[in-house]
Amino acid sequence: MKLPNWIEEAENRVNSATEGPWISFVEGRDHLSGSSFIRTSGGDIELTGATIEDQDFIAHARQDVVALIEEVRRLNSLLDEK
User: 45 lies in which domain range?
Assistant: First the structure.
């Protein structure tokens, strides 16, 4: 079964982004001084105008999208076996 185009497009975006893991660090929650940021293997990302929840979502999306694509591919392969 062919996967939808958006799966391949999402996978291309993941593969083009800075390698993970990405980790959200929130001032006052994860450290005491400085600013809130997302740590990546390529450097820190600082956001303006984002809520803590937005920042956590963006940081976790780097790993979550990879896991979701792997699960879609796994489920798709099970359908192909039938």
Answer: 5-81
